[in-house]
């Protein structure tokens, strides 16, 4: 019985931990600790993202990204860029500084 309870507790903790695991991702920690340059972020966006999301991020093949930070946390925005979970959006592997600048730009939309 104790064993069963222990197992249930273990699974519950594992699930709770998994939903927050991104907060401890070293790449994301690194990105969030950097200074952000919005101007550079805009340039990175125009090169990599504008083809699908539109030059002003108002949507094209991909959805509009206006007011993105109202519905997604910093961690979720970074995850969207690096995870490749929503094809046809590709998986990007930006340098942490590029991701930090891009994040600053995306949060201004
Ligand atoms: C090949 C086209 C394509 C490219 C290039 C692309 N995206 Fe996307 N993006 C999409 C599509 C399609 C979706 C919607 C996916 C879904 O919801 O299933 C999406 C979704 C998103 C979302 C989630 C929007 C929301 O409302 O939650 C974010 C944020 C995003 N993209 C950011 C970016 C950024 C930043 C870049 C450049 C680094 C980029 N995308 C490049 C196609 C693209």
Show the helix and strand layout.
Layout: H1 2-20, H2 26-33, H3 38-48, H4 50-53, H5 68-71, H6 74-83, H7 96-107
Helix pairs in contact: 2-7, 3-7
Description:
- The chain has 7 helices and no strands.
- The radius of gyration is 17 Å and the shape is elongated.
- The protein has a domain at 36-109: Cytochrome Bc1 Complex, Chain D, domain 2.
- It has 109 residues and is mostly helical.
- The relative contact order is 0.17.
- The model has no long low-confidence stretch (mean pLDDT 90).
- The protein is 62% helix and 0% strand.
What can be said about this structure in brief?
This protein is an all-alpha fold.
Which key features would you list for this structure?
binds heme C; Cytochrome Bc1 Complex, Chain D, domain 2; 7 helices; 109 residues; mainly alpha
Number of helices: 7
Percent strand: under 5%
Write down the secondary-structure element order.
HHHHHHH
Share of helix, binned = 55-70%
Structural class: mainly alpha
Rg over CA atoms, rounded to whole Å, is 17 Å
Largest sheet: none
Bound molecules: heme C
What is the CATH architecture descriptor of one domain? Orthogonal Bundle
Give the end-to-end Cα distance, rounded to a whole number of Å.
53 Å
The total count of strands amounts to: 0
Low-confidence stretches: none
In one word, what is the shape? elongated
């Amino acid at each position: 019985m104790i064993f069963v309870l222990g197992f249930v507790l273990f699974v519950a903790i594992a699930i709770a931990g998994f939903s927050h695991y991104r907060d401890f991702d070293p790449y994301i920690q690194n990105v969030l600790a950097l200074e952000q340059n919005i101007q550079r972020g805009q340039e990175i966006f125009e090169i990599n993202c504008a083809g699908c999301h539109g030059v002003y991020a108002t949507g094209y093949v991909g959805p509009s990204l206006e007011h993105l930070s109202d519905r997604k946390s910093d961690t979720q925005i970074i995850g969207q860029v690096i995870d490749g979970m929503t094809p046809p959006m590709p998986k990007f592997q930006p340098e942490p500084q590029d991701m930090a600048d891009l994040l600053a730009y995306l949060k201004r939309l």
